[in-house]
Write a structure and sequence with these properties.
about 220 residues, mainly alpha
Length: about 220
Amino acid sequence: MNNTTIEYADFAEYDRRQRAIERHLLAAFLGGLAVGLLGMFVAGLDTAWIGQVYDPYAYLALSLAVGASASGFGWALLTTFLAAVSTLVAAMGASALRGQDTFQIIGGSAAGLNWTLALLVALGLLAYGTRRDDAWGDVAAGAVGAALIADVVDRSTPGFIGSERSFWPGPALVIGLLSVVLVFLLRRSARGRVRALAASALFAGLFTVGLAAFVAGWIPLEV
């Protein structure tokens, strides 16, 4: 009788886990569709800073939320990719129906679209890694913040690849501050927060130096 009770409890727990995974998959798909469709409408607004904040940071926020709430690494990879693809398909499909350039909605170009997709999936996996309570979780949280800060630096620095004059100072300061707050919130202990912020500053600094060297021609790469 006791064995039967234990087996039933195990089965019930397994069933709850499976249902949670199904709901997570559905939420990732529907969330991607909603964010993508809304991005199409935001892109048509006359207020430039709204579009600058929404693209790509709304997509990145969705990826972070999906990855952090996944039940495993494999599920984080699958659901983040599903959310990213549904976002891109919804935005591009809606823009095509309106006769707009599909690359105008997300990424700005074909290369930008591919980079956005890769970044969304990578951030989702890093977000899942932040659930760890060890040093690797601190590194993952720092990498998340560094990716956001590096994008802010690229868009707000004249002469860099993604430079946008109107992105500085308003949107840049808002996103930069929120990135620091996000890293702070992803860690539970004071020590973990310090290590995550230090890792974020280190990674962002290395990216900035590398990008500056590439723009100056010190790194001979063709794009």
